[in-house]
Specification:
It is built from six helices and 42 strands. The chain is globular and about 70 Å long. 50% of the residues are buried.
């Protein structure tokens, strides 16, 4: 039997024997009984509840997952969530594809604060990889539109990393992990606890990580995939009274020497890629947030929260092109360095008044402002001489990285959301949000001149849930959007097939999504089935263009961004758990199809994942020293041969598409009181495979180990 046939057989078993992640992967922080109906409120870190996203599929992965599966970067912890595809352009980065959308069409948050700034690109990015997985209590993933609460970019979904809760008493922890696929090591030290009778709580942490060149299946070593990173955190919480508290959070992280493997080779060695050198260094995140919140503080207000803060995101990239000639590729005589630093200030808040039982109302809003500090140079490899890169705007010469120095973007929005229980069986919810965004950029005279763009948008959603015995049926319709940002308007960046240049006249892209979900929760059996269909218009996409009448810019093909298409995405997601006789089965599958239409031409959308699935079986294990578990997990995907023109230009994807794959891993963990041990052997058959759209091949057969020691917890 072929592996593709075997995978198809596994997927066919899912309706009867599938599993939705373990209990820790469904974060139900509170269950409130209102008029006889159990309403599960799945909190997203800043106090945003699932009631605000009625109809959206919300799943979570808890902190225990970091020690129960191979996790080198935070996106690794999301690989086994329903409906989530993790894409990796390089070994140090990872991003998620939700409902067929990626990049700046998926919103990333930390404790409810946006990491998507105005320079987030239209493809995979590093945002989630800048968040230390050891700091996270859980990650919540919303599949489907979330613009009515979160604003721009929340078209395919929302990913919110929730930092660990404060300890109730003084405690410390040390964790170290090892990955055999890249000789990678990650270590973290943490100390924290409560003082002054629990009114004051503090938490401090430091982490460091390094990874060598990644070995894929069949012994393939991928040069240029080594990297290193560091992070730190400091958090403080002060309880001012019976209901109010002030929380201060400082986070800092840095990734260095992250090579872009897909630019160095054409899919796999030995085929040369378009660049002889391409490395991101540094990529940094700094975050300082103060949040004042309260619960049940007076007769008029049930919840309230206001947050303000500052973020800094830095990215440097160095690139040296390959010049293609009759004798084969030859490295260019110059290197290009681009550095773009984005500083963001924001304020956000919301309030929920006290209303009659079964009714909820939330009013909220936020304002974010970005400023870009950019610079760059061209360096002679032979002499080391450097020439600053600038753009000419009138009489001015503006320093430039990928973006011109001094570019700004401001966005703000306000929303209203209401939910109501009708009797014992029905629940209705609806919301509306208005947003205004403004981008000011001196793109340069050669690139269309100054940009001063303002866009107003309106988002809305509504839905209903029917509770019938052990079943819950939900129907939902939502409208989402993404406002064009500084990247769309003003970037000069290397892209697959050439270089992307500024595009000064753009409109927001919009989406409307319909979703039907059925959930069965009957004791040891939980089954969730979701069907979705999305319609997109004014889709921003990259098309061949020209620069000053020429199709080439510095010898590379010119691409421009434009609102050129409508698109349609539809698919299905299945997930379930079955617990019987001490065994826990889990399995899932998801399928997405996307079609984009430009004029009379219809074609596939880019990076659409193939049919993918998972099947796992866990067995509790008892030892004299403490409890444990053992697990076998099988993952796989069918081939993806349906490619867009953009896919065919992308060196991350083979010319004929991505082959199907199937892999099996064995894992075990033990809890010896203050000492926790997790280990596993992944990709037992040493299969050489690549997840669709990724720029690296997945790790080959390897051992991973993680040890954590806690004191006082």
């Amino acid at each position: 039997m072929s592996r593709s046939t075997l995978l198809a057989a596994v997927l066919a078993l899912i309706p009867a024997h599938s599993a939705f992640a373990r209990q820790d992967s469904v974060a139900a922080d509170s269950v409130r009984r209102v008029r006889g109906v159990d309403v599960v409120a799945e909190r997203l870190g800043s106090g945003i509840t699932n009631s605000l996203l009625l109809g959206d599929a919300v799943t979570s992965v808890g902190e225990s997952r970091v020690g129960e599966q191979p996790v080198r970067i935070l996106p690794d912890a999301l690989r086994e969530l329903p409906g989530v595809q993790v894409q990796q352009t390089n070994a140090g980065h990872g991003t998620v594809i939700l409902r067929g959308l990626v990049g700046n069409q998926v919103l990333v948050l930390v404790d409810g604060v946006r990491l998507n700034n105005s320079t987030v690109r239209d493809g995979p990015n590093q945002l989630l990889s800048l968040v230390d997985p050891e700091l996270i209590q859980r990650v919540d993933v919303v599949r489907g539109p979330g613009s009515v609460v979160f604003g721009s970019d929340a078209m395919g979904g929302v990913v919110n990393a929730v930092t660990r809760a404060f300890a109730g008493r003084m405690e410390g922890a040390a964790a170290i992990g090892f990955s055999g696929s890249d000789a990678g090591v990650r270590a973290r030290l943490e100390v924290g606890g409560a003082l002054r009778g629990g009114r004051l709580a503090v938490q401090l942490g430091l982490a460091s990580q390094s990874a060598g060149e990644l070995r894929a299946g069949s012994g393939l070593v991928q040069p240029g995939t080594s990297w290193r990173g560091h992070s730190g955190s400091a958090r403080l919480r002060w309880r001012a009274g019976a209901c109010d508290e002030l929380a201060l959070t400082l986070l800092a992280s840095s990734l260095r020497d992250v090579g872009r493997y897909d630019r160095l080779v054409r899919y796999r060695p030995p085929a040369p890629g378009p660049d002889a050198e391409f490395v991101f260094s540094p990529q940094q995140l700094g975050m300082a947030v103060a949040r004042w919140s309260g619960t049940a503080c007076n007769a008029r207000t049930y919840h309230r929260s206001v947050a303000a803060g500052w973020l800094s995101q830095l990215e440097g990239r160095m690139q040296r092109a390959n010049l293609m000639g009759g004798g084969g590729p030859a490295p260019d005589s110059v290197r290009v360095y681009q550095r773009d630093d984005v500083r963001t200030v924001f304020v956000a808040g919301w309030v929920e008044p006290r209303l009659a039982a079964g009714t909820s109302l939330r009013l909220g809003g936020d304002v974010y402002r970005d400023r870009v500090d950019a610079r760059g140079f061209i360096e002679s490899v032979a002499t080391g001489d450097r020439t600053p890169t600038v753009r000419v705007a009138g009489a001015d010469s503006i320093a430039s990285g990928r973006f011109p120095d001094g570019a700004t973007a401001t966005s703000g929005g306000a929303y209203l959301h209401a939910a109501r229980l009708l009797g014992r069986r029905w629940r209705l919810a609806a919301g509306v949000r208005a947003d205004l965004s403004a981008v000011k950029v001196r793109a340069g005279d050669d690139f269309g001149g100054d940009v001063n763009a303002t866009n107003a948008t309106l988002s809305a959603h509504g839905g209903a849930s029917l509770y019938h015995g052990a079943w819950v049926f939900t129907a939902h319709l939502g409208r989402s959007f993404r406002a064009p940002n500084i990247y769309d308007f003003a970037t000069v960046s290397a892209v697959p097939g050439g270089v992307q240049l500024p595009s000064p006249a753009l409109r927001p892209e919009h989406g409307v999504a319909a979703e039907l979900t059925a959930r069965l929760d009957r004791g040891p059996i939980v089954l969730i089935t979701t069907l979705f269909h999305s319609w997109l218009r004014d889709v921003l996409d990259r098309v061949p263009g020209s620069y000053r009448g020429d199709t080439l810019f510095q010898g590379r093909r010119v691409f421009l961004t434009t609102n050129l298409a409508t698109a349609r995405l539809y698919g299905a997601e299945l997930a379930a758990t079955i617990r019987a006789g001490g065994l826990a089965w889990r399995a899932q599958a998801f399928w997405t199809r996307g079609t984009q239409r430009t004029g009379a031409v219809s074609e596939a959308m880019t990076r659409i994942p193939p049919l993918s699935g998972l099947l796992g079986l866990r067995q509790p294990v008892s030892t004299a020293a403490g409890p444990g578990w053992a697990e076998v997990v099988a993952r796989g995907a069918l081939p993806q041969r349906r490619l867009s023109p953009r896919d065919r230009r992308d060196s991350r994807i083979a010319p004929d598409g991505t082959d199907g794959w199937f892999t099996v891993g064995l894992r075990a963990g033990f809890d010896f009181g203050s000492l926790r041990l997790g280990a596993g052997l992944e990709n037992l058959t040493d299969r050489l495979y690549r997840e669709h759209g990724s720029g690296i091949d997945a790790p080959g057969r390897h051992l991973w180990v993680r040890v954590e020691h806690r004191i006082g917890g």
